[in-house]
Amino acid sequence: MGTTVSSSRAQRFNVGYHLNSWDLAGKDNDAALAFLAAQGFSMFEVLASTTLDDTFTRQYMGLGPRPPVNVMTDTRFFERLAVFSRAERTHGIQLSSLYVNAEYINDMTFGRELDQFEVLCRFLTAAGSRHLVVGGGPSAAPGEDHSREEYRDFGAALTRVGQIAADQGLMLVYHPHIDTFVETRGQLDRMMDVVDTDLVGLCVDTAHLQQTHSDPVAVLRDYLSVVRYVHLKDTLDADRLSGRARYEAFCELGAGLVDFRSVTEVLLAGEFDGPVILELDMTARKTAEQSCLDSIAYFTGELGLLLTAPVAPGRDAAGAGQ
Length: 322
Description:
Strand content: 5-15%
Strand order of the largest sheet: 1-2-3-4-5-6-7-10
Number of strands: 10
Helix content: 25-40%
Number of domains: 1
CATH topology: TIM Barrel
CATH superfamily: Divalent-metal-dependent TIM barrel enzymes
CATH class: Alpha Beta
């Protein structure tokens, strides 16, 4: 075991876990929530997975051939939301946010996306959440970037969604993600120039930035004042990978390339007190439970961090309890 991170600052953030490893594999989410609560997590995040944000929107992400569409019926979607809404009552674990994809700059679908955001924001508020995590937007053509007009329209759309979230007492945070509108540090910089940061904050995901050689430590440090949410996620070398293989390169914390010691130093020194979510997608190497336990062991043993902050979060209601 290495030396844990030392800092004169106390940890102010609480920690949750993402349901991806169970949810994407079609496993029982209720059982997963019971497992996560038993490990000491106070919160969780999960994909919204509506037909609009998943089946339709994610088709541009370059994942290659996909299995037949698993249509999200309204009854199945309500059943899904019911599991998440009663998680605190049943298991003592709080819904931190839903993760929602959209295209934003497709005039034929944006109206429906706004309707979806309106409803999901109301659900999150009722569930006691304080953030809405969003991603998406079509990626730029290989070797190119989006036009100035596309950035303008994208920023205006995000700001509009941010106002919907704010009207419901939520903070919108955008998640740079491979195969979407914002993948790299350069694209992130351009996006931040065209959004209202009072309405649009950042969700920094360490693995997605690492895969595009966009130093997650530097991004976190430079944008800490507008970072409201963090995904701690690791990845193996994905330089020669493409499509679905890049997603299969994600791994347990400490098993990949991300410099989590420096990430931790930035979070502690900056007194970050928003939600921090440990995350891993599906893995064929281990069970979801074992991957989770391995990441907890690294997080607490190697980094010397806790799943519950010893100092109560204080920047906003979002940091406290979720």
